[in-house]
Amino acid sequence: MTAPRAATAYWIGFGAVLALLIAAPLVLPEFWRRFVTEILIWGLLAMSSDILIGYTGMISFGHSAFFGLGMYGAAAALLTVRPPNLWLALLYGLIGAGVIAAFVAYFATRLRDIYFAITTLVFSQIFYVIIFTWTEVTGGENGLTFRQPPFSVPAVLSVPFTPVTLHWFVLAVVALSYLILRRVTQSPFGMVLQSIRENEPRTRAIGYHVERYKIVAVMLSGLFAGLAGVLYALQNKFAAPDFVFFLVSGEVVIFNVMGGMGTLVGPVAGAAFFLLLREVFSRFFTEYYLIPVGVIFTLMVVFMPQGLLGFLRRRLNQ
Amino acid sequence: MAEQLLIQLLIGLSSGMILALVASGLTLIFGIMDVVNFAHGELFMLGAYVGTTVLVATGSFWLALLVASVTIALLGAGLHITTLRPLLGRDPLTTILATFGLSLVLQNYALWQYGPVARKIQEPITSQFQFFHIQFPWYRIVIALLSAAIIGALWLFLKYGKYGIWIRATTQDRIMASAMGIPVPLVHTAVFAIGSAMAAASGVLFGPLVGVNHAMGLDWILKAFIVVVVGGMGNLAGSILASLLVSLLEAFASLWVSPAQAVIVSFVVLILTLLFRPTGLFVPTPK
Amino acid sequence: MLTVEAIHTYYGKSHILHGVSLEVSPGEVVGLLGRNGVGKSTTLKTIMGLIHPTEGRIVFEGQPITRTVPHRLARLGIGYVPEDRRIFRLLTVLENLRTGLDRNGVTEERKKVLLDKVYQYFPVLAERRYQAGGTLSGGEQQMLAIARAMMLEPKIILLDEPTEGLMPKMVTQIREIITLLHQEGVAILLVEQNVPLTLAVSSRIYIMEKGVVRHHATAAALRSDDSVIHQYLGV
Predict the structure, then answer these.
(1) Which of A106, A121, A122 to mutate: most B Cβ within 10 Å?
(2) Which of A148, B123, C25, C170 is 20–30 Å from B37 (CA)?
(3) Mutate which of B108, B225, B254 to test chain A, going by most A C-beta atoms within 10 A?
(4) Is residue B121 part of a domain?
(5) Model confidence at B287, in pLDDT bands (50, 70, 90)?
(6) C111: left (phi over 0), alpha (psi -120 to 50) or beta
(7) Which fold has domain C2-233?
């Protein structure tokens, strides 16, 4: 397939998926509608993580911190400012995630590989402990609940969300994020990130300031993860410390691996796959669904490290 | 106040020794096989569970300790052969992912098998002793000594003895060790089994001090990782010293803040170490 | 005893060996000459199982060993002394020797006999037996690498450029060791850049160029007419 035709095919595919997702809330029952919205949110989180893991080659177990701070940031806005404002929630959430991202970015430049992974894990736990114990501010174990803000264009209109319109809002944000991230990964900047993943010493030797690229990658990753956190807060109207626990980061890594790292779309598919598996297995195994899912994940790490997407890609090429 | 400090000192030392036992297994596995064993906390937890089962069945704490160590060593060997051996030679980060997957499975398996309610192990020695004006449980001293003994035995095993040489040779040059007839995959499995046994033993020893439940591994794995990084990865002596340091600091900190918040101490130590001595506090920084 | 048939080996995407064939009979000293980069070391590494060939066969004492793991080959009787010696730097000299000595089925008396023999051949190792391998000089490390392989009581030793970087006095010592080993009936496949040494100790010589064996002759023939050697090695 020549390049222009491949591009057209891609956009047709993208458009088709988008159309399906727009139509989804109109035809699906309530439960599955929520399910699709959740997939989108976790998909965004997985995409943000892919920037680090898949493109730059830095495994991070700290995305739950970015996600959680986005969530709590939004909560802060919605609880302290009256009337609750959608855009303020977004802003607070992004600032919260951004601050943490800057902090992590500093360490990212000084640590390699395993040390970085462990440190990010520790960070998400630090925030977990702080959030869990600082009950006066964060609600501790019980978290915070708040009202959903209306969709507002300042001074023009203010319309409360319905489940359907909220889904469309989430879809719009996620789709836009995807396009932005896609643009970034295909840009020269994205190429440098991948070259860092392939061979960091060589990239440095060529003359690139690896540190600066890593910092930007972490900031980018953190901000979009925070955005996912805000969306989650908006949809569910609560913020809880459970989401800051490092196991959530682990789940994100699972999405990345299962779906295919370094593909942006892969992790979203991975998130969908994981959530679907969880649904299905929960029917049979109730809360022990992680046993079969964990087994599948481990088997995939060993035998299918390129993830579902990589696997499909190979099959299609044959 | 002095009495409280003294008690905290003893608590810090005894917890530190148990942490050292867990961390030694972890750093051993990393130093020799370049594997970051995320499932180490779960081996600790399963060891505690096997220990409780044996204890309930036979009434003997020491038998429980032995059986738990052996069982989990076998489990560790099995896990290594099935999941980690195929990953030999691949990017080391895949082992983090694989062991993470294993930890999820093991944790939830324990939840499924044993339920969410914590179990209590009765400590074998319940008496306390007088030390100046304070009462302190003998048991804590015993576990500290036992941990030290186990670690000492490990060190002797590595330094002398035929298999110790095999292990050290494999660590230094895996390929040449193989060319000398040393069965490298077997050595790796054996080391993983030893590390697992150490984790299990810690679980049984520590069990009476907290409840045994499926999530107990999580706290420990985090602390163990911190300690291993602070002590210098692959550095046995370093991880022991770091364990004692962190545990002592935490013990003293809990005089002022709640135990849940005292864990921040270990985080702070880690961050400071990474900022100023990233290869480990007790390792000279390479120029 | 050792037959290599048309092996092809790749390093990643680089095709290094393009069908190398050679053989070594029991007790023979066979030389493998060639310029840098033609694939001599790669041939030894392929035989020793450190790299797997994509095509071809290797047979040792009638058994196919083409993709067998190194530790099994060592136990079958193939010793390997790599180009960069690769002794265990943090182990003592004695511990280095023990990695080969501590095998199954070897009695304590036999171990003592072997150790004494090696200390006789290499007195300097006896002196430094409790010193860490990394503290030895280059020549001493080469001695240790050879001694270590001898601990396996091998039927054949794959020797990769043992005289590289050594002083002339040590080169002579290496030559004596090779002769001694030959007298004991140990076969040797010797990869070398040192042509005079190879001509002196070998009975047959293969010459490689660009990943294949280009010429094969008895050492005697090459000693009388070494024009072929000049042709391929430019020496």
Answers:
(1) A122
(2) B123
(3) B108
(4) no
(5) very low
(6) alpha
(7) Rossmann fold (3.40.50)
